[in-house]
């Protein structure tokens, strides 16, 4: 247990080999990087699109074209129980268009169960090499069975079998349990297609807000938020008109 103390500057964390160390003296506390120069800022008038879906597509394309961005579609998905207990994990964004942002998962997993009882989520993508991040928040709905099957059939056979092997988020006795079942199913489906498990489905986040973040070295980061116009009536003096029913505004970093 970390002891409660009044002076935050003396806050300590437990280190396995050296005991308690002060955060102020910790190498972790000193970690920081420089982002963009003050002259390279994200201005409302210079946005490459006033439609957040199109702007996301432009940013995503730039990230995808870089050799130093290994997986541009990796995203942190945050869900919560009906009572508000949160959880987060990384998923792979597999499609996006004007209707929303799609990922696939086991519906019996923790995130699947949480989405069933509380169908809202937040998705965050961070491209370190670009000093950029995008946050997406909104309602979630399952895509059709046909769409899920269509995508499942494009996956490598090993991944298809893996979807059957892993009853995601359930407790297992050992790694060997997975390996043995995987070997069994590889043999079973050696010469035939692997069907999509009924619990393996696609989900789409239908965004209410999409935030575009760009890091600045002076920590005065740029934050431009797009929001559906029907939710922004309380901000009439600060928002700008976007396209296709969106407005946008700047947040303090």
UniProtKB/TrEMBL annotation:
UniProt domain Pyridoxine 5'-phosphate oxidase dimerisation C-terminal: residue ranges: 200-253
Keywords in alphabetical order: Flavoprotein, FMN, Oxidoreductase, Pyridoxine biosynthesis
GO MF entries: FMN binding; pyridoxamine phosphate oxidase activity
Cofactor(s) needed: FMN
Pathway annotation from the record: Cofactor metabolism; pyridoxal 5'-phosphate salvage; pyridoxal 5'-phosphate from pyridoxine 5'-phosphate: step 1/1; Cofactor metabolism; pyridoxal 5'-phosphate salvage; pyridoxal 5'-phosphate from pyridoxamine 5'-phosphate: step 1/1
Every Pyridoxamine 5'-phosphate oxidase N-terminal domain range: 67-178
E.C. designation(s): 1.4.3.5
Domain of life: Eukaryota
One GO-annotated biological process of the protein: pyridoxine biosynthetic process
InterPro entries, per database record: Pyridox_Oxase, Pyridox_Oxase_CS, Pyridox_Oxase_N, Pyridoxamine_oxidase_dimer_C, Split_barrel_FMN-bd
Class of enzymatic activity (EC top level): oxidoreductase
Family indicated by similarity: Belongs to the pyridoxamine 5'-phosphate oxidase family.
Quaternary structure (record): Homodimer.
The protein's role, per its UniProt record: Catalyzes the oxidation of either pyridoxine 5'-phosphate (PNP) or pyridoxamine 5'-phosphate (PMP) into pyridoxal 5'-phosphate (PLP).
Protein name as it appears in the record: pyridoxal 5'-phosphate synthase
Lineage, top ranks: Eukaryota, Metazoa, Ecdysozoa, Arthropoda, Hexapoda
Gene name as annotated: LOC112689024
